[in-house]
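CO-FOLDING WORKSHEET

Operator: S.A.
Ligand of interest: magnesium ion
Run index: 175
Mode: holo prediction, single chain
Checklist:
[x] sequence pasted
[x] SMILES validated
[ ] output reviewed
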Amino acid sequence: MATDRPCGPNILITGTPGTGKSTLAEELAQRASLNYINIGDLAKEGNLYEGFDPQYNCPIIDEDRVLDELEDQMGQGGNVIDYHGCEFFPERWFDIVFVLRTDNPILYTRLESRGYNGKKLEDNIQCEIFQTILEEARDSYKTEIVHELASNTPDDMEDNLDKILSWIEQWKNTH
Ligand SMILES: Nc1ncnc2c1ncn2[C@@H]1O[C@H](COP(=O)(O)OP(=O)(O)OP(=O)(O)O)[C@@H](O)[C@H]1O
Ligand SMILES: [Mg+2]
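OUTPUT RECEIVED:
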């Protein structure tokens, strides 16, 4: 079913932490003149938390409040959402979903240089090995709108931007 989105398509950029979501999504939003929304930052700014996870030493996002906060804006369209999960969003929100994938040695180095170590580092690497986010995306959205993108090198990022920008042009021509 085609949805009416006056401000353009809604795009989800997801993937394991460190795969390059924010780097890609920010650049994409700028080049395509779409709104960039980083769910982690949104939760932080609005204090949309419902507790604290002692194991990972981080606050737990209040998903219902995040959804309430975004509902109107998502209805208008024209948003690039950046988050390392995808199953709590309503399926109807997104026109296309991109899952970034990074080869393990590269991801390991990126996360290590961010200061991740021990269980947090291992769990994120496992998440990528088991393609947890890709499966979550395939379970949550129509498989034909879910696309994997390699995110290892700056060239990959340029290719990904080109692909997504041309998809946006096509979307605009048909809506
Ligand atoms: N295509 C790429 N090629 C090389 N390096 C990249 C690429 N994309 C991102 N990076 C680098 O990898 C690191 C992680 O990128 P970024 O912060 O965008 O990841 P993220 O998926 O948003 O992580 P998180 O989920 O923790 O927010 C950064 O240092 C970034 O510069
Ligand atoms: Mg990020």
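REVIEW:
The mean pLDDT is 96.
The two ends are 12 Å apart (CA to CA).
[x] output reviewed
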